[in-house]
User: Fold this.
Amino acid sequence: MLRAIRNKSILPAFSAVRAFSSSAKEMTIREALNTALDEEMSADPKVFLMGEEVGEYQGAYKITKGLLDKYGPERVLDTPITEAGFTGIGVGAAYYGLKPVVEFMTFNFSMQAIDHIINSAAKSNYMSAGQISVPIVFRGPNGAAAGVGAQHSQCYAAWYAACPGLKVLSPYSSEDARGLLKAAIRDPDPVVFLENELLYGESFPVSAEVLDSSFCLPIGKAKIEREGKDVTITAFSKMVGYALKAAEILAKEGISAEIINLRSIRPLDRATINASVRKTNRLVTVEEGFPQHGVGAEIWFSSLHCLFSVQLVNSWKYTNLLHLLNSTSVIEESFGYLDAPVERIAGADVPMPYAANLERMAVPQVEDIVRAAKRACYRSVPMAATA
Amino acid sequence: MSFSATNFAQPRPVPVGVRSNEKPLSSDASRFRFRGPPSFLGSPHSLRFKPIPPFKLAIPHSQRSAASSVTHIANGKMVKSSANLLITKEEGLELYEDMILGRFFEDMCAQMYYRGKMFGFVHLYNGQEAVSTGFFKLLKKEDTVVSTYRDHVHALSKGVPARAVMSELFGKATGCCRGQGGSMHMFSKEHNVIGGFAFIGEGIPVATGAAFSSKYRREVLKEAGADQVTLAFFGDGTCNNGQFYECLNMAALWKLPIIFVVENNLWAIGMSHLRATSDPEIWKKGPAFGMPGVHVDGMDVLKVREVAKEAIERARRGDGPTLVECETYRFRGHSLADPDELRDPAEKARYAARDPISALKKYLFENKLASEQELKSIEKKIDEVLDDAVEYSDESPLPPRSQLLENVFADPKGFGIGPDGKYRCEDPKFTQGTAHV
Assistant:
C-alpha cells in the first residue's frame, strides 16, 4: 500500500490563514480538522465521509463545513440515525479498499456501533491472516463537554485502547489535529480519532510546515510539550492544556514539570514516557476518563512492563514483541527509577453529574494536577496518610 | 447517480412473493399451482394469520426471461417439454456436485470433530445446501459473499478449495486464514468471501458496505465494469435484530446492489422462529422498506436458482436490493455441541423427506439429464477430494509461534504512513530519538 501523496496546493474550504506577514499563523481545531479532511478528500478520491448531519447541516459541530458543496453528496453522506448500520457499511466499504471517515456525533453513540469497531474492523486483519485490511477512521468528540449529563460525557480512550487491532489517537493542538487526522486517513488500519468538543474553538499557533498539505504526524509517538526535570506529567487531549497551566503554577514554586502530550493512546509511546521517567524519577498521569482500568493505570504499569519484558524476550525470542514495545534499547526497569509512587489523576468514579459545581468536581482541574505534582515531589503529605 | 433520497425511484408494487408449496420436484405442473392455505413453514404450530393469495414476481415485462416459470402461476399449469427445463445437463451436474460437496464436507466435519481434530464451535449446514448452491452457481468470482458462522459451505461453493477450508478448521497454517480465523471466520480475498461473522446481524452492514463500495467505484471512481453484486446470508433469528432493518433501509435508500438472503430454518438454536417473531413472514419486511420481498422453497435448488437469477440481475442492473426468504431446514443441531432436543422428530422427518439432494437427483433422473452412473462417479470424486483434504490438513503444520503477533495491523510497526507515502518505520531516520519536542 505504498503510494506517493502528491504535493498539491489545495484551497481549503475556508481560509485558515491570516493575511498579514508578521504574526504567527493561528488556527482553531475546527479549521485544522476541516482543512485536513478537505485536503485528504481532494488527494484521494477513495476517501469519503459518512455520519449524521455531516452534509447539509455542515456538521453537528461544523467540522465538515463546506465539504458537501465541494465534493457532492456521493462523498459526503448524510446517514440516517443508524450507528450500527452505517458503521458496518463503512467497515464493509473499507474491506474493499475505500477509505471511509465515519463520524460519530459523540463517541458515546459509538457504543451502538462498538461491535463493528471492534469485531469487524479491529479484528479483521488478524482473523483473515492479513488478507483484509480496514483503512477506516472513526472520529468524533470524546469526553466531557459542558453540562451535557452522564450519557454524553464518557471518555472512551481506555476502552478502545485496550483492543489490539485499533489505533487510538487523541490530538490536543491544531498541529496535532491536522497531522494526526491526515495520518489516520492515510493509515491502512482502523483508527479511532478522539477529539474534544470544548477544544474545537480554541486557537493554536501553527507553523508553515503544518499548513502544508502533505504534513502528517507519526502514529505512536508522543510529544514533549514542555521540558522539565522534576516531575513528568502525561496527558492527552484537553488535559494537556490543564497540565501546561499547572506547569506554569508549579514553575513559580520551583518545580519544573515535563509535560508529555501522548497524542497516541494506542500504540502508547512507552519509550518516551520511560525516558522521561528515568530523567525526572516522578510520574503523574492525567486523564479525564474513569480511573479504573484507565490510561493512567496502563502507563503506571508500563513502567513495570519493561521489567517483565526481559523474561519474555529471552524465553520467546520474538523480534515482533520487541518492536511492539517501540524500542529495542529500553528493556530496562523504569520501576527502579521511580522516587515516588505514581500519582494518577482521573475523572471521578461516578457517571457525570449535571449540576455545574458537581461536574467541576468530577473532572480533573488544574489545582488537582498541581496538588498531585506536589505530592509526587514530596512537597505535601501523600493521600494515604490523610485517609 | 447520487445517493440522495430525492432520486429514489418508485418502489415496486407491493407485496410480491412467489408462493412455494411443499411438494418436491416431482412434477412441473403441481409445482406452480398454489395450494393454500399451506402448513406454512412446516411447523406444527397453528397460524394466527390468514394465508396470502399468490402474486406474480413484479418483473417488468421487458425483463421477463423465457425460462422463468414463475410467471405461469396465474395459469396454474405448465406444458412440460424439454425446452422448458430449467437447467441443462451440465448445469444439473454442476449443481449436484456442489450440493454433494457441501453435504459430504459437513459430514466429514462432524466425524473429525468427534475424533478431536476439530474443536470449538462448529456449525453445520446439512439440509440447507439448496440455498447456497442455488445462489452461488450464478455468481461471478468478483461478486462478494458475507455469511454467518454457518459458513463452511458458503466458502466451498464460492470456490475456496476444500483443502484450505479443512485446514482452517483443523487450525493449521495452511488454512485459508492460516488458522487464525477458525470455523466461524472464513475469509478469502481471492474468492471475495469476506466472512464468517460470529455475531448474528454483524455481517449484514458489512455486506451493505461491500455493495456500497461497488456502487461507489462505479459512480464516483468511474471504474468500468464495477458491477459486483453482494450477497448477505443470515438466518431467521437475525431478522429480529436492529441492524437488519437499518441495512434494509439504507440499501433501499441508496439502491445498493445487494441481495439479503434469509435462510429461514425455523430455529435459532432452541428458539423457534414463531416464538420469537411477531410476524413470522420475513419476506414481507422487504416491501416495507421499498424493495421486493420474495419467499421461496429453500429445499428446492431449482426454485432458489430461478429467484436468485432474477435478484442478481436486478442488482447488477442497478435497480437495487432484494430480500429473499428461503424456507429451509438444518438436519443437524445448531452446532455440534447442541443436543437438539427441542425440535419435534416428526418435523425433522418431514423435512428429511424433502432433502434437496434427493430432490435434485430425482429431477435429473426423471428428465433424463443424468444417469445413476454419472451421479455415483461425482460422489466418488467428492469422496476423494475430501479424503485428500483431510489427509492434507492432518499433515499440515500448526502455525509457527511467530505467527501469534503477526497481522494485528496492516502497517508493520504501527507508526502510520509518512508524508512521502511510505511506512514511517521504513525510514531509517525515524527510529532515532523518541519524541518530538
